[in-house]
Predict the structure.
Amino acid sequence: MPKLSALDLAMFAFENKQRPFAVGPLIVLKPEGKDSRGFADRLVERMLSRPVKAPFDYKLELGLSKLPAVESVEGVDPSAHVHRITMHGKATMEELFALVGELQVKLLDRSRPLWELHVIDGLEDGRVALYGKVHHGIIDGRGLIRMLNHWLSTDPSDTAVRAMWDGLPRSAAAPERATMAERLLGIWESAGNFVDSARGLTRLLAGRGVASLRLARGLPFPFIGVPNVLDGQLSDRRSFSYCVLPLKELKAFGKAHGATINDVFLATLDIALERYLRERGTAPGRPLVVDMPVALPAADGGNQIAVMQFPLGRPGTTPAQRLEAVCESTAKLKKETARQSPDVVMLYTALAHAYPSLIERVGLGRPVKLANMVVSNPFGMPQRCYLMGAEVELVLPISLVAPGQTLNVTAVTLAEKFQIGFLAVPEAVPEVEKLAAYTVEAFAQLQAALATPDAEPATPVAPVRKSTRRAAPKPASTAIVAKPVAPKPKAPRKRATGAGAAARRAAAG
């Protein structure tokens, strides 16, 4: 049976109707010519022939005498998890995003394997969308990228069609039957590991305590110095927006200034956020704090990451100073995590995020802030991708909004595109499409501020889009790139509760 880490368990424990813990991609395909008619049904039929593999065959097991665990289920029928939706008319991208917002907040059924896939047609220009949902307790961002790279092809003539549920390499599992001696030995080893992790956690917290007192260089405790911005009433509503930056320019700029792509991404976002908050009259007097997943070299369970906190640039500083501050913070973060074992930093992640979750659930006063937002960059697909011959136009990350927070910013690369998705609670982060638009302009501003004589600011390679789960306030400015979203998307016509009927129609037609 696959082992769940402390962080995996926390993903299940923290989930509720207002905090769904599903993650996954929104893929937009553009079938061409005669192949576009009936494309979605043919694709479903081909994918349904693929067997379900780990972690898509995992089901949550609960018991009074044991910790929650996941167990592999034999013979999972993918048609029970795949849903065909046809939107009426030529639905816009905004209407698609609104529909995805509706689907994202619905909790996955824990009595069966923890995923689903929605195949959506009826979009403008014959596009087809695939929205996949997987519980975050069984897969992390890096795992999702591995899944995508296996699912999609880099060859437009590739006739093999794989599916989302084709699976990932399985981590070492415990034997099906264990002797009493083996079980006792396992308990003893677990106790020893816990003691080692507790010692490591104590050292990590001690280091943060010293840094909080400014007695040494390092990262301070979480909950200290987090500005009270991006606040608002928690709800089960979600709004989504995205923008695309040119990856080639990001790489060249970072290389020229001794920064990683991630550093440039963070500095760009910091500039955009200051503008957004200043316009709303809520500009902070101290640096924003981000919650960032950090990949670990070796760990058990579905999430091989730690989620650590660090500050961005000081308000009012120049773009160059912001980039310098980000580089300094990320260097401290890398140094801190390198000194700890994966178990220690995952235990720290689970405990640190448990506090705001508990306060939020019991409703005791103002929500505790661990950070202002999650910012993640699991990279992505290095080349153009195709599925059943149709080119992938976009792979947008639909992530989650963490306890105590109202905004998630996740980037995924696709060939030359650096795609950035903004998922927000609209009551706290209204008009999130402005933030996406400002991010495009912030990168040009950063380039201009540190430009060499032969360098020119880049132009965006895709427009900003926005969606809202329910009616959004009417934009106060006509400068917003995205169109206002209708109160609800046009009611989609569900052609089957599962995919089996759609596949049979395709086979018959």
